[in-house]
Amino acid sequence: MSIAIIGGGIGGLTTANALLRKGFNVQVYEKAQSLRSIGAGLSLTPNGLNSLNAIQPGIVEVLKHAGSLLHTLTLKRSTGETIASNPMTLMQQYGQPILNIQWSKLQAILALRLPSDIIHFNHRCVGFEQENDQITVYFAHQKSIQPDLLIGADGINSVVRQTLVGDGFPNFADRVSWRAVLQYHHELLPLNTSTLITTPDGKSFLLVDVGGGYIFWSAIAPSADDFVHQRATHPKTRVLERFAEWVEPVGAIIEATPVEEIVEQPICDRPPLKHWSKGRATLVGDAAHLVMPFLQQGANMAFEDAYELAEYLSAAPDIETALNVYEKSRIPRTTAIYDRTTAPDYHPYQADGKIMFNDMTEPSQMSQDEFETWLYGYTPSITH
Ligand SMILES: Cc1cc2nc3c(=O)[nH]c(=O)nc-3n(C[C@H](O)[C@H](O)[C@H](O)COP(=O)(O)OP(=O)(O)OC[C@H]3O[C@@H](n4cnc5c(N)ncnc54)[C@H](O)[C@@H]3O)c2cc1C
What we know:
- This protein is of the alpha/beta class.
- Helix content is 30%, strand content 26%.
- The chain has a single domain (2-170, 270-376), classed as FAD/NAD(P)-binding domain.
- The chain is globular, with a radius of gyration of 21 Å.
């Protein structure tokens, strides 16, 4: 079976690895001219790491050497007062820790496991057509291909999703984020820790050790618009305007970050879909289920998608059956994660973040402990 994956991000590269290991003929088509080196870090949680290990036994050990294991999560107010400092004990419970890693290192580790000639850069997909059990995928430079199966891993503004479902643009969630990775040392930022600083007005600043002397910071602030019309000032000016007065080292770390390293991005999500497969086309990652990043699950859900899709495709009698089982399994889980990020009582970046350590008050929701057990306890063990 020939499979075309649109998008060479975290989801596309993981899916390519999973499918190759099942013996499929996979090609990845990426619109960029090379792998994007995004100045960001990611927190990988036990559910995602267990899925990656099921796809490629041993890969998590490689990631652990490239990143940093989270031992302590500290919550602070913007004035510096510590609200809570919690040791992380997920390893004992779920067999995997929380692993913080630079995006570019994760991407390189995933790409290195693929034959280099299967990633086709400079291929911007512009849509596809399906007719009589045949699919034709079109690219910007007039080229087209006819794979047996098309997988859209083309992220937040997915063209494949647009052709498949046609549900328009993502929703702007009235918040903007800024992110960067830099080499930085400060006595307030010990190794193997993350520090989340929040204010009741919905601003947050996250500082994460991602290993090798590097720090990842991520700032989120409420915003009336997504800044697309305000390009006259630098992202660095905008983030400093909002966070410069916060407890050290927040101001110092923003000042020390080269402006070109700061990634500014509106926070968006999309209402969950009832179906995301049709005929010979399906979706993985943000293209399938875009959630706000509060639970740090976007990439982790993509790992779960990749694992399950490869398993179903290798076991089912035909593509349609495999895609049907795949979305039936994935949609309820990813919808529950979306629901959690939008639940009225769940405001991890408000009320000084206390809710993160307390139970939910809404009775229809699981308690925080129950939710975490359900989320991180996902075990990739599909039996055919
Ligand atoms: C502030 C913030 C913090 C986050 N923190 C975390 C975290 O800690 N943990 C976590 O798990 N997740 C986190 N996420 C979410 C995570 O970054 C995403 O869910 C994840 O990157 C999705 O991967 P993807 O491969 O689906 O999409 P992407 O990584 O966006 O990749 C899509 C790829 O498709 C390519 N592409 C797009 N359109 C086309 C086209 N038409 N033709 C060809 N190629 C195309 C793009 O160039 C890109 O390479 C965070 C997100 C944000 C905004």
